[in-house]
Design brief:
The protein is mainly alpha-helical and 115 residues long. It contains 2 helices and 2 strands, in the order ααββ. Bound molecules: iron/sulfur cluster. Iron/sulfur cluster binds next to loops.
Length: 115
């Protein structure tokens, strides 16, 4: 008898937890769908700007303006949040760049530091 009561209580609790989690799951799905695709370094504009997703691999001879410590996360054009692995860039609307990336129009974001 008491076992039946506990089972019903557990079922009810499980159903309530499922209902509570459903909207959060829906939000995650919408966010995942809304995430912008990464810029392809082989795209025309990316190539023209010498964009690379890994600033440590920039060819310093071909890009004499590059200095170690420059990357998308500390660039004035980067619109991603601090600490995010990727984010928006004003030069690539509708796309995302890696925070570790770099291109030849990099300019230090006010208040940011190299590194
Ligand atoms: Fe990265 Fe800045 Fe170039 Fe955008 S403009 S790709 S944020 S270095």
């Amino acid at each position: 008898m008491s076992h039946d009561r506990i089972s019903r209580r557990s079922l009810l609790k499980g159903a309530l937890l499922t209902l509570a989690a459903a909207p959060a799951a829906g939000m995650l799905t919408r966010e995942a769908v809304a995430a912008n695709p990464l810029v392809d370094p082989n795209d025309g504009q990316a190539k023209a700007l010498s964009y690379t997703p890994d600033a440590t691999k920039v060819d310093a001879k071909a890009n004499p303006n590059y200095k170690p410590g420059q990357h998308c996360a500390n660039c004035i054009q980067y619109t991603g949040k601090a600490g995010d692995a990727e984010g928006g860039c004003n030069l690539f609307p509708g796309k995302a760049v890696k925070s570790t990336g770099w291109c030849k129009v990099w300019v230090l974001k006010p208040g940011a530091t190299l590194g």
